[in-house]
Design brief:
Elements lengths: L1 H28 L12 H8 L1 H34 L5 H13 L2 H12 L4 H10 L11 H24 L5 H8 L4 H29 L3 H6 L6 H10 L4 H33 L1
Length: 274
Amino acid sequence: MREGLMLFPLLFVVVVLLLVPLGTLGWSSLREPGAAGGWTWENYARFFASASARRALGNSLGISLGVAVVSTLLCLAPAWLLAGRDFRGKRWVRAILTLPMAFSGIIIGFLTVIMLGRIGVVPRAFEALTGLDWLQGAAYGFGGILVAYLYFEIPRATLTLEAALRKFDPRWTMAAATLGASPWQRARLVTLPLVLPALLSTFAVTFGASLGSFGVVLVISRRVSLTPLQIFDEVFAFSNFEAAAAMSVVLVVLGFAMNFFLRGLASRLLAHRA
């Protein structure tokens, strides 16, 4: 009885803030626009039949995968340092890493424009030094979106991986060293297999967050079409809630499938290691 009462707030949040909205979203995606009722797959058929919608979905998946890969690779060294070393200013470094995650996507997009816009700080600096307008307007293409996403995904990945690496036992690598293993052999045969589940979980977190990110692309996406931006247009420009619901369901399914697969793989690796 006591355990049930303790779980009640969690169950309430899951039902009210997750299951009910997702169910409503799924139901809306199966309704014909303007129809009184009935079931139809027409919204999904239109979505996958539209070349622009498929292109936007491909862009969203490509950017999310790229951001997840780069964030996971770049966060490995700082996460390892934060998890295994004590140094002066460590608390300040961790606090600075949390700062980008506190910014909304709108702010991050605006900062990207300030740095990489047509009259941004970086293009103006290059022009002053070389006379070339290199990177002018880069904020509005794939590069700008990638930089903006990495701005808040690398800190997220670093702190996520740090929490997992705290459980790493350095005695494994010490034992390998005493047996004559080289640094490369220790990294490849000992360290990587032990931290691979944590890397997969970090990849899943960054991929999911990037796939649904909206505020950044709302500010800087001028040349690249992404599915979150198309969802926004369907709702506020065309009042087509059913089409927007279908697009949202596609993103939810893709994000859930990737997370489910990667976390399942990480769990199997942990079970195999045990």
